[in-house]
């Protein structure tokens, strides 16, 4: 009996010991897991706080997360103390349950945050898409800080006036090219000005033909508010005044840049009765009704010489510059104009002595009787005449084909120049010319968003800007020849006005519009909102490039389009705020030489047969009618397409399956199309595809398995496809792949085993990714010829708004 009782007691002790060991075994891993989660979440929470502040996001979510982490740490600390006291092992199961519940709460909360973050990301991306109009058309808040040399006195005078309390209108006036815009931009970056006005600094370019409603719409976008449909100008001004009056801080600075003569009444409409509201106007006239203007006079001798020497030796400290009086004479001949000094200096940079001497003689040969504006143009002309490469000069003159104060997409120039001057398709020669024009200070190039490397030959985010005077120079040069000999015919139509050369006796002998034969190779037509498309009967039989710049909600291709038998390039750009309904698209069907079409901010109509089209570019377009509701399949409409580029087309949900039948396609770029969720499953049929870009398509969840069948694919870009969770299982079979961009694919958790096959290729495969992407590749070490590059990510968010020189 005693033995039996002893056995029972021993058995219970053994069982208790077993339970103790079991509790300890189960408790310790749970505790370690809790510590691991807590340690991982704390730095992430700090990062989220930083981005919350930058993006001005609500703090409730991060405060909830911080509370979870705080409570979790307290529980972990209690559990650590408990684990040191094994005699309290009976408490382990209860404490372990608390830790498990905490971990489950964390996971449940993080799952919810993932969903909320996806929503927030879509909201931000939508905001980016909506603001893209602003990126191309105008500026959000303060523009990019410019280089600033001279003009110190005027800068300080304006700064003092802007720092004063109360509302006022300040006018900064001077000749074209005197630095008014540069000075206004620099003021926006002055620390005291920024300290006073904070984020309430707005910069709008007005230009020669201002549209008040569009200016107000730009300001609504800069404020991050939905843009209303204004019934008229009075309604637009009233709603803007109501918006500005709601700002938390009353200090507001509005810069109205490039206000033309006769626009005083427009400036007056922006003068609201707000306590500390400043308007800074830049103009070539003084507008004295607003008080004594700040006159921007030509630079004095010393600052003029400093500016000239700066740009003559820019980035080349040891570049040649003659000594003695020659430089002083050239500087003096520039008459203190910052623009002329910059352009002349750029044209002489690294040039031999003879070029400097020739420039001095050219400048001194100008007539002293010429008007100021004509004189400046003539002096700028001297630098243009020094361009030895005829293609460079012609390319610069092409800048006059586009509206004033608008950015010119680099890809448009590449398309034009490839057909007009036989420059290469890839853009290498075109970019060489652009860089040389930058060096000579004829143009500026800006990038609205950083790309991964400079060797991509991908320029969808690059734009050219040039000063109004230089644009005027390009137009003047194009119009210098007789009408019959012009290479470029530039037509600006406003309302019912028509060019003089179209007015005369018609076929019935009545004064009115007449039929006119046009021999120019390039035809540029700019119209305004109230334009009537039925305007003339031209015969542009020799035109190879047609540039249509419009601002209307509806636009019909000109009736003479189907007569343009030599047309190779069509560029249609809508500079208005709403998409333009494009009609008469079928006129293009008879043009057998048409190779390139670029459409921006239009609703693309149903496709027509374009047998010889090689490249189609759609930017900020509505594509539904052309891709979903069209009776003609895309493969029938464009059977010989080589390149398709679709950017910021936010109604694009899926590509048409018939696209895969266009086996001639070599480049397919679908970028910033945030609603794109499906790629054609038979994409592998594109047997000649060399480049596939799917970057910033935030709804794209998976890549079709057939991608692995693209045997000629050299470049694959899935950057910032934040929802993409899976790559093609056989992606390692892409034997020609050289560049693989996968930065920002935050939902991609693993790589398929087939990536080991990359080790069988003889060439280098360059993977461009972030730290998370690099961690995925670490699971597949020792793949020969694989190079992982993690480019530095910029900490600011300037790319959301774009920049402008």
What's the helix and strand layout?
Layout: H1 2-55, H2 60-83, H3 92-137, H4 152-163, E1 168-173, H5 180-189, H6 191-197, E2 201-207, H7 212-222, H8 233-245, E3 252-259, H9 264-269, E4 277-283, E5 294-295, H10 301-312, H11 325-333, H12 338-348, H13 353-364, H14 372-385, H15 390-397, E6 408-409, H16 410-420, H17 428-439, E7 444-447, E8 462-465, H18 468-478, E9 488-493, E10 503-505, E11 511-513, E12 516-517, E13 522-527, E14 538-539, E15 545-550, E16 554-556, E17 569-574, E18 580-583, E19 596-600, E20 602-603, E21 615-619, H19 624-627, H20 634-637, E22 643-647, E23 667-671, E24 691-693, E25 715-717, E26 739-741, E27 765-768, H21 771-777, E28 786-789
Parallel strand pairs: 1-4, 1-5, 2-3, 3-4, 9-13, 12-14, 13-15, 15-17, 16-18, 17-19, 18-20, 19-21, 21-22, 22-23, 23-24, 24-25, 25-26, 26-27, 27-28
Antiparallel strand pairs: 6-8, 7-8, 10-11
Helix pairs in contact: 1-2, 1-3, 2-3, 7-8, 10-11, 10-12, 11-13, 12-14, 14-18, 15-17
Under CATH, the topology of the domain at 653-805 is which?
Leucine-rich repeat, LRR (right-handed beta-alpha superhelix)
The CATH level-2 architecture of the domain at 653-805 is identified as Alpha-Beta Horseshoe
The counted number of beta strands is: 28
Radius of gyration: 32 Å
- How far do the termini sit from each other? 100 Å
Shape: globular
Strand percentage, roughly? 5-15%
By secondary-structure content and strand pairing, the structural class works out as alpha/beta
Sequence of strands across the biggest β-sheet:
9-13-15-17-19-21-22-23-24-25-26-27-28
CATH superfamily of the domain at 653-805: Ribonuclease Inhibitor
Helix percent reads 25-40%
Q: Mind telling me the CATH class of the domain at 653-805?
A: Alpha Beta
- Mean pLDDT, to the nearest integer, reads 81
Characterize the main sheet.
13 strands, parallel
């Amino acid at each position: 009996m005693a033995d039996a009782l002893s056995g029972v007691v021993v058995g219970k002790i053994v069982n208790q010991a077993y339970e103790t060991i079991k509790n300890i075994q189960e408790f310790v891993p749970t505790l370690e897991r809790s510590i691991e989660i807590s340690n991982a979440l704390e730095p992430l929470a700090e990062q989220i706080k930083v981005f919350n502040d930058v993006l001005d996001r609500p703090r409730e979510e991060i405060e909830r997360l911080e509370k979870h982490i705080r409570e979790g740490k307290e529980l972990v600390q209690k559990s650590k103390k408990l684990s040191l006291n094994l005699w309290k092992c009976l408490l382990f199961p209860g404490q372990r349950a608390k830790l498990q519940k905490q971990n489950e709460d964390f996971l449940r909360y993080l799952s919810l945050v993932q969903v909320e973050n996806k929503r927030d990301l879509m909201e931000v991306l939508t905001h980016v898409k909506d603001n893209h109009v602003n990126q191309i058309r105008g500026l959000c808040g303060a523009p990019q800080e410019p280089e600033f040399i001279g003009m110190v006195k005027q800068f300080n005078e304006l700064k003092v006036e802007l720092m004063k309390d109360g509302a006022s209108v300040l006018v900064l006036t001077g000749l074209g090219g005197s630095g008014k815009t540069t000075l206004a931009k620099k003021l926006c970056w002055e620390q005291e000005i920024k300290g006073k006005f904070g984020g309430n600094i707005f910069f709008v370019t007005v230009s020669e033909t201002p549209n008040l409603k569009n200016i107000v719409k730009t300001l609504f976008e800069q404020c991050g508010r939905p843009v209303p449909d204004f019934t008229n100008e009075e309604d637009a001004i009233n709603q803007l005044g109501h918006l500005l009056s709601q700002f938390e801080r009353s200090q507001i600075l509005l810069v109205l840049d490039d206000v033309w003569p006769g626009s005083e009444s427009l400036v007056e409409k922006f003068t609201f009765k707000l306590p500390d509201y400043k308007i800074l106007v830049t103009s070539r006239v003084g507008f004295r009704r607003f008080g004594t203007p700040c006159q921007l006079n030509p630079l004095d001798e010393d600052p003029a010489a400093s500016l000239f020497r700066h740009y003559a030796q820019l980035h080349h400290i040891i570049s040649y510059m003659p000594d003695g009086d020659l430089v002083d004479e050239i500087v003096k001949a520039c008459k203190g104009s910052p623009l002329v000094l910059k352009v002349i200096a750029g044209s002489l940079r690294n040039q031999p002595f003879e070029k400097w001497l020739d420039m001095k003689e050219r400048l001194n040969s100008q007539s002293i009787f010429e008007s100021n504006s004509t004189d400046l143009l003539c002096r700028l002309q001297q630098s243009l005449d020094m361009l030895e490469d005829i293609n460079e000069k012609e390319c610069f003159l092409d800048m006059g084909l586009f509206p004033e104060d608008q950015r010119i997409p680099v890809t448009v120039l590449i398309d034009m120049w490839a057909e007009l001057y036989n420059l290469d398709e890839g853009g290498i020669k075109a970019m060489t010319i652009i860089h040389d024009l930058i060096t000579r200070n004829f143009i500026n190039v800006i990038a609205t968003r950083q790309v991964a490397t400079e060797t991509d030959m991908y320029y969808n985010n690059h734009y050219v800007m040039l000063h109004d005077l230089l644009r005027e120079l390009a137009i003047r040069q194009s119009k210098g020849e007789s009408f019959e000999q012009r290479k470029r015919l530039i037509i600006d139509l406003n309302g019912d006005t028509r060019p003089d050369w179209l007015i005369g006796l018609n076929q019935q002998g009545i004064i009115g519009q007449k039929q006119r034969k046009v021999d120019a190779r390039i035809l540029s037509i700019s119209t305004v909102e109230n334009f009537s498309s039925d305007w003339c009967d031209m015969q542009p039989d020799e035109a190879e490039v047609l540039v249509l710049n419009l601002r209307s909600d509806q636009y019909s291709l000109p009736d003479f389009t189907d007569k343009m038998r030599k047309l190779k390039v069509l560029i249609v750009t809508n500079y208005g705020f709403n998409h333009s309904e494009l009609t008469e698209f079928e006129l293009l069907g008879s043009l057998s030489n048409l190779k390139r079409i670029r459409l921006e901010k239009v609703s693309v109509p149903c496709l027509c047969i374009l047998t010889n089209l090689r490249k189609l570019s759609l930017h900020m377009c509505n594509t539904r009618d052309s891709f979903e509701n069209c009776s003609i399949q895309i493969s029938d409409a464009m059977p010989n397409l080589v390149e398709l580029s679709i950017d910021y087309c936010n109604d694009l949900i899926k590509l048409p399956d018939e696209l895969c039948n266009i086996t001639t396609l070599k480049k397919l770029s679908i970028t910033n199309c945030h609603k794109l969720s499906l790629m054609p499953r038979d994409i592998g049929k594109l047997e000649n595809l060399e480049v596939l870009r799917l970057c910033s398509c935030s709804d794209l969840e998976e890549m079709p398995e057939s991608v692995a069948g693209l045997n000629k694919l050299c470049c694959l870009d899935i950057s910032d496809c934040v929802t993409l969770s899976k790559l093609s299982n056989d992606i390692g079979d892409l034997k020609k792949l050289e560049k693989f961009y996968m930065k920002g694919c935050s939902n991609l958790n693993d790589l398929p085993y087939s990536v080991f096959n990359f080790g069988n290729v003889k060439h280098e495969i360059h993977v461009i990714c972030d730290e998370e992407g690099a961690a995925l590749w670490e699971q597949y070490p020792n793949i020969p010829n694989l190079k992982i590059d993690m480019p530095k990510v910029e900490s600011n968010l300037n790319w959301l708004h774009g920049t402008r020189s």
